[in-house]
Design goal:
Radius of gyration: 24 Å
Number of strands: 16
CATH class of the largest domain: Mainly Alpha
Distance between the termini: 32 Å
Helix content: 40-55%
Shape: globular
Number of domains: 3
Strand order of the largest sheet: 3-4-5-6-8-7
Largest sheet: 6 strands, antiparallel
CATH architecture of the largest domain: Orthogonal Bundle
CATH topology of the largest domain: Transferase(Phosphotransferase), domain 1
Number of helices: 15
CATH superfamily of the largest domain: Transferase(Phosphotransferase) domain 1
Amino acid sequence: MSTEEPNRGTSTSLRGDRGLGREREELKKIVESFLDGDAETLRVGSSDDDGREGRSTLRSGVICTSTNHYVLKEKIGEGGMGVVYRAFDEKLHRDVAIKVLFKTDDDSLERFIREQEITACLDHPNFVRVLAIGYLTLKDRSLPFYAMPLIRGRTLERLVLRRLFRDPEGLRLRREYSQATLLRMLSQLCLTLQSAHDKRIIHRDLKPSNILIGPYGDVYVTDLGLAKFLARDANETGVFDLHVLEQLNKIQGNGTQESIMGTPYYMAPEQGLTPRKVDHRADLFGLGGILYFLLAGCKPQYRQAWLDTKTLESRKLDLLGELSGRAGPDFCVEGMLHKPAEDLAPDIRSLVAEYRDLIEALEGSDYHRFRLTMKACTIIPPSEVLAEYYGNTGDENDGVAAEPVDPALEAVCMKALAKNPDDRFQTCRALWEAIHGFVESKEKLAGPADQVGDRPGHP
């Protein structure tokens, strides 16, 4: 059922490049005009911690007279570009979730349209599906939206953190969601992402807060705002580059020692180093990060060599000498920096890229410092984090119930988190086989009496 207003007439498909720029400009003008001075819309100031500018917030109870007749009830979530509301569908008499776009820049519009299209393409039951798209009309104003089923549950992040507490609720959750049960959920996620990869779609933003656990133990993958078709899209803007910078701005020091540093924790290194060349194996890294979270109860932790100004300057001089030796008597560093990467010899290309990162990092660029960090850092295994970060290896400590890490499962986790994509599991199905095999072997050793919950279906 189409939910678009009869006179819109503008296609918002991202497939192909026919008229994309013109369509995006038209949609941008439409949205911008709808955000101007609506009596039913409350304009709030830019006092948010994340630095976003003033944003429109819809009041509870507003009736959106689109073709779907939704009545907004309450805000249930907010992301970088839109807000999610619980709403009531007056035609079908059910609650739904509605995501409404408020930001009007080109990147947000591109991302919102692509998110709608990709979500609609994914038919695996563990992806949140699109019920309808259209415009929410407020008197003479409208806002782009899409509707989804309302999932009443909690995020995997909240579930795992809550079950760590040594109180009655934590005990109940550990019984209901044992480690084996959580691993089966992760197995479901592997097959869910495999179904997307089979359609050449990658998520690029897998993390526990983007995984929903329904009231009956069902697992759902959400937030496809950074997802993309692997087919090359010349019209794609720098959405992911901007996302990296946004994540860097939100970093807070979580470690107990200076050797542990914070990064955009679940993001594969190549997403920050070569974002245009990312393939499906970036999602394998994200799944490995989720497994790490299940084992350690925290985000993946990184150890790096200290990148102070003195160290960076020293490396810069060493790199100059190495470049001079390889380039010969006609060496000119400025000329190399301005040459396209494809015009440089393969053995010099990576050195020039590192030199550029060093210059920018010394001038204060967090993004280039992050690139240097991802090249030099190592991920601390979950078992070491339990000893170093929590101060225990599974025993009681400060009311937190941390479980010991099985070496075989830790090896699976660290392989998925390999910095080099070639060293990871190459498909989500291969990771599923490793996790599924581990759970099966443990259940055979434990016997039927100790098995908890139903097994996930075979692919």
